[in-house]
Design goal:
The protein is mostly helical and 414 residues long. It contains 19 helices and 2 strands. A hairpin with a 5-residue loop joins β1 and β2.
């Protein structure tokens, strides 16, 4: 063993490793590629010098086809260049220089982000490098002048002076009539005026007419709203417009239209008078019909909105389980739209209770027959102004009670 080790030491370096190999083996004669020598720290090439401009993955230039200026072992082997990260710099230092700073995108700079979002701002340190620091929000009063300045009036939510004056005038426009009514109310004789026979008769008739009109509107309005919400047919928008017409039509015009439709010589009234002897005008039924005509659109629109907003999958599930259409309507649809029906009924009842123009035109003002509470107030203004004020205060209390009952829909701020 010692002799063989001595012979190997005396043998040249290029011929080492060939001892004991056969001459027919071609792999033994192929020269090995020299390996890369480790570079000294700080002597690395820059990032742009890793891959020459004209070099391809195969290690040859585009112009000459010669091996590129890179690692000699890769160039001699002719293999594929295994990415750029294999020769990247560890500390990214150029030749003998300090670490290279990464260039930031203009949109990602700290100052730009602070100006756009109002959260961070840039601050130049002594060395000239940017560092981030957290500052207070815009609402808290930023100290950096580069941030967007917010006016104090906007921060404190103060309205402009012109808007404040106009809004105050609008509030006074609604509040002053109520204050005047309360100021002129005879509190000493208020109870006596309310318990008078004429006032009680008018109040009782108003309740009967308004409740009957609401019941008739429920009977006719719910099926009509269901058809508008569920069925598509030619002219549906036209019929819906005709249904909502009494809401914008003057009440006196509505009373005249009812008179020419259901009067003695009206379109339908003459047939009812000749066939059955029924006369609707100037009766309690006429007052109910007039109140229904002007109040039913409120119910129809409210119930239709509830039907459109409900989930129809519940109805489809009930139909797939074998329920009939009427059973689905009674057990599924009505419970789901019950809040909408209640809201529409309350609005309809309030509108029927305060009806004046259509009732006095179509049904007249007969005490105990067609003289409702608004008509009694109108007649009392000529003979007993104090009684008219007390009855008006009663209707005001009823209106406030309706608003309290409907506070979930119209008074959400309370």
């Amino acid at each position: 063993m010692r002799r063989r080790a001595a012979a190997l030491r005396e043998q040249p370096t290029a011929d080492r490793g060939r001892a004991g190999e056969s001459e027919e083996d071609p792999r033994a004669r192929r020269p090995r590629a020299p390996r890369c020598r480790p570079r000294a720290r700080g002597a690395h090439r820059s990032r742009r010098q890793v891959r020459p401009r004209g070099a391809r993955q195969g290690g040859r230039r585009r112009e000459t086809g010669e091996p590129g200026d890179r690692c000699p072992c890769r160039a001699q082997q002719g293999g594929a260049w295994r990415g750029r990260r294999g020769h990247r710099l560890r500390d990214r230092r150029p030749l003998g220089g300090r670490p290279r700073q990464r260039r930031q995108h203009p949109r990602k700079r700290s100052g730009h982000r602070a100006l756009s979002r109002g959260g961070d701002t840039g601050r130049q340190s002594a060395s000239g490098r940017a560092s981030l620091r957290r500052v207070r929000s815009v609402a808290g009063g930023p100290k950096d002048p580069r941030l967007v300045r917010v006016r104090r009036s906007v921060r404190r939510d103060r309205p402009p002076l012109a808007f404040a004056i106009l809004a105050a005038i609008g509030v006074a426009f609604f509040l002053l009539p109520l204050l005047g009514l309360l100021y002129r109310t005879p509190w000493n004789t208020a109870l006596a005026e309310l318990t008078a026979s004429e006032a009680l008769t008018a109040l009782r008739l108003s309740l009967v007419v308004s409740v009957a009109a609401t019941a008739l509107a429920l009977l006719l309005g719910i099926p009509l709203a269901w058809i508008y919400a569920r069925i598509t047919f030619p002219g549906r928008d036209l019929f819906r417009a005709l249904t909502t017409l009494p809401m914008i039509l003057p009440p006196v015009v509505g009373g005249v239209a009812l008179l020419f439709a259901f009067g003695r010589r009206g379109l339908v009234g003459q047939f009812l008078d000749a066939a059955f002897g029924i006369r609707i005008p100037f009766t309690t039924a006429g007052a109910v019909l007039a109140a229904t005509f002007v109040a039913m659109p409120f119910l129809v629109l409210t119930v239709e909105a509830g039907l459109r907003s409900m989930d129809r999958r519940y109805e489809d599930a009930a139909r797939t389980l074998g329920a009939s259409r009427s059973l689905v309507f009674r057990r599924v649809t009505l419970p789901l739209i019950a809040p909408s029906i209640f809201a529409g009924a309350v609005l309809c009842w309030a509108r029927a209770l305060g009806e004046f123009g259509a009732t006095i035109t179509f049904a007249g003002s007969l005490p105990g027959t067609t003289q409702t509470l608004p008509l009694a107030i109108y007649n009392a203004l000529e003979t007993r102004p104090e009684g008219a004020v007390v009855l008006s205060l009663l209707l005001l209390a009823v209106s406030l009670a309706i608003l309290v009952a409907m506070r979930d829909r119209y008074l959400r701020a309370f």
